[in-house]
Design brief:
CATH class of the largest domain: Alpha Beta
Helix content: 40-55%
CATH topology of the largest domain: Cobalt-precorrin-4 Transmethylase, domain 1
Distance between the termini: 78 Å
Shape: elongated
Strand content: 15-25%
Low-confidence stretches: 225-232
Structural class: alpha/beta
Radius of gyration: 23 Å
Length: 280
C-alpha cells in the first residue's frame, strides 16, 4: 500500500474568516485531523460544516500519539495537523511530528496561512528585517536568566511569544536585561478586542494591567543603536554601584545584569564591580 501524506494546515489566529480556501479543501478531504485542542478545532470545523474524525496531539501525549499517527500515514491515510491557532510547528508540539515524519520519508505538505509572529511584526512599526523569532522564554530558573542574557546583544528585531499570566514578569525581565527599548505588544490579534501597544518597555509595564487576556506577541527593538549607545555611556557604573551596594545583588548577579542590559564586555563590568565591592 502506498504511504499517505501529512498535511500541515494553518488555521486562523482569531478571526475565522482568515482561513484559506485551500485549507478548507484539505480539511474536508483528509482521512483524519490531528489537533492540539480538539474542542477548539471542532468549533472551526463546525463553523465550516466539516465533519472528520478528530484525534488529539499535544505536548502531554505527543511521544506516544506521534508514532501512532505516522503509522496510519504509512498505511495510506492522509492526516492534517492543526494547532490551536496559526501555523503548526511554531512553538508547539507539531514541530516534533514534522521531524519524525521527515525522518520516516513521509511526504509532508504545507498548507500555509496565518502566524501570529508575522502578523504582529508587520504592524509593530519596528524593522521587519532582519528579525529573530525566539519563541516562549523559559518560565523560571537559570534557564530564563540565560535566555535573556544570551539574546541581549542581537542587533535585529526580536519576536517573543508569552502567556498573559507572565506578561508583566517578562516585561520586567526585558527592562532589566535588555533595557528600555522600543517595543510593540500585540494582544488578541485579529479578534474583536485586538490591541497593539507601541512605545517603550517601561511604558508597556504601566500600560497593561496585571490581569490581561489573550495570547501575547512581543516585538522588541534589537541591541544595535539605542542599546549599543547605552553601553558607551557613563551611566552603567552608577547603575552597577546601586545594584551592589543598595539593592544587595552579588558581584556576579550585578555584572550579568549590567553587561546584558548595556551590551558591554562582561569582563569590563566585572572589574568595575570588584572595585566597587572593595570600596565598601
Amino acid at each position: 500500500m502506498n504511504s499517505g501524506s501529512l498535511y500541515i494546515v494553518a488555521t486562523p489566529i482569531g478571526n475565522l474568516a482568515d482561513i484559506s480556501l485551500r485549507a478548507l479543501d484539505t480539511l474536508r478531504w483528509v482521512d483524519r485531523i490531528a489537533a492540539e485542542d480538539t474542542r477548539r478545532t471542532r468549533k472551526l470545523l463546525s463553523h465550516y460544516d466539516i465533519h472528520k474524525p478528530l484525534v488529539s496531539y499535544h505536548s502531554q501525549n505527543m511521544q506516544k500519539r506521534g508514532p501512532q499517527l505516522l503509522q496510519k500515514v504509512q498505511s495510506g491515510e492522509t492526516i492534517a495537523l492543526v494547532t490551536d491557532a496559526g501555523t503548526p510547528g511554531i512553538s508547539d508540539p507539531g514541530s516534533l511530528l514534522i521531524r519524525q515524519a521527515l525522518d520516516m520519508d513521509i511526504q509532508v505538505v504545507n498548507v500555509p496561512g496565518p502566524a501570529a509572529l508575522i502578523t504582529a511584526l508587520v504592524i509593530s512599526g519596528l524593522p521587519t528585517q532582519p528579525f529573530a523569532f525566539l519563541g516562549f522564554p523559559p518560565s523560571r530558573g537559570a534557564g530564563r536568566t540565560r535566555f535573556f542574557q544570551s539574546y541581549s546583544t542581537l542587533p535585529m528585531t526580536l519576536v517573543l511569544y508569552e502567556s498573559p499570566q507572565r506578561l508583566h514578569r517578562t516585561l520586567n525581565d526585558l527592562h532589566q536585561f535588555w533595557g528600555d527599548r522600543q517595543i510593540a505588544v500585540a494582544r488578541e490579534l485579529t479578534k474583536r478586542y485586538e490591541e497593539v501597544y507601541r512605545g517603550r518597555v517601561a511604558g508597556a509595564r504601566t500600560h497593561f494591567p496585571q490581569q490581561v487576556r489573550g495570547e501575547i506577541t512581543l516585538i522588541i527593538a534589537g541591541a544595535e543603536g539605542e542599546a549599543a549607545d547605552a553601553g558607551e555611556s557613563e551611566q552603567w557604573p552608577a547603575e552597577l554601584d546601586d545594584l551592589i551596594n543598595n539593592q544587595g545583588m552579588t558581584v556576579k548577579e550585578a555584572t550579568n545584569t549590567v553587561a546584558a542590559k548595556h551590551v558591554i564586555s562582561r569582563r569590563t563590568v566585572y572589574q568595575e564591580a570588584l572595585r566597587l565591592k572593595r570600596r565598601e
